[in-house]
Amino acid sequence: MQSAGQTIVIIGTGGTIAGASGSATDNVGYTAGQLSVASLVAAIPALAAQPLEAEQLAQLDSKDMDHGTWARLARRVQEHLDRPEVRGIVITHGTDTLEETAYLLQRVLAPGKPVVLTAAMRPATAIQADGPQNLLDAVAVAGADGVRGVVAVVAGQAWSGLEVRKVHSYRLDAFEAGADAGPLAVVEEGQPRRFRDWPAGDALGASLLPEDASAWPWVEVLGSHAGADARALDAWRAAGLQGLVLACTGNGTLHRALEASVQTLTDAGVPVWRTTRCAQGRIVGAAGGAAAALSPWAARIELMLALLAKRR
């Protein structure tokens, strides 16, 4: 149900959108997470008259996102969602792991209000920085009527938190949706034009996530590829691996050199899920399962959540 409140809370976690470089023409040699979220908001005159709150939860390069930060973020977002005066949340984030954070938050919170992640491919110091427009669009989506769930708003498009994937290393429009899906909406002059339903589902609850990072189950992703070798997998098993996601070739196929070690892991009671390493599509047929339509990274999160739920 959409809140009657008007306040948009903007939570900063760092990323390229808050990055700075020594040269305005350098779009790659920058340091992420240098500017505060308050300064990002202050740099956009169009946001000055809006009822906003800005707070800094973290200041990191999203390649270094960690489980403890995820737990703190989920709890803080839920606290703001519970406030009747809050209409929606915007989270500034790095692009590298945005898809993982979005998936986690949607599965854990499944919010009835909008939770909008936004990011940038160029640092804030760039001549043509993309962060300001992305942030402005994210605030517009968070304040629009009828929006709910976790979405990512980048380059004028809104993506489902359950589907969004980073597919390009440099382009400004670096995101698409997996599972052969398209964007949920486009943002046109501050108004979202919706094509599909906003994300929905049952909330697992932020309390499921341990604040102590060492209490999270150890789940890894292993890719199948030409010349695969099982020694790394055997080492993980010996070290206490608790779950494995296989990024398989094609329609869930696995190199024969890995089969015996995977079977040993399964026989020991360690869950093994299969995904495809292909950028689009899903595993069809007998090789499918719980992760058939998920990216390897979303599958890893889903498996961690399943293991955490068993502890309840």
From TrEMBL:
GO terms for molecular function: asparaginase activity. It comes from the Bacteria. Keywords: Hydrolase. The active site is at T16, T16 (o-isoaspartyl threonine intermediate), T95. Substrate binds at S62, T95, D96. One of its GO terms (biological process) is asparagine metabolic process. Residues 219-309 form the Asparaginase/glutaminase C-terminal domain. InterPro entries: AsnASE_II, Asp/glu_Ase-like_sf, Asparaginase/glutaminase-like, Asparaginase/glutaminase_AS1, Asparaginase/glutaminase_AS2, Asparaginase_C, L-asparaginase_C, L-asparaginase_N. Residues 8-193 form the L-asparaginase N-terminal domain. PROSITE patterns: ASN_GLN_ASE_1 (PS00144), ASN_GLN_ASE_2 (PS00917), ASN_GLN_ASE_3 (PS51732). The keyword Hydrolase applies. Belongs to the asparaginase 1 family. This is L-asparaginase. It comes from Roseateles aquatilis.
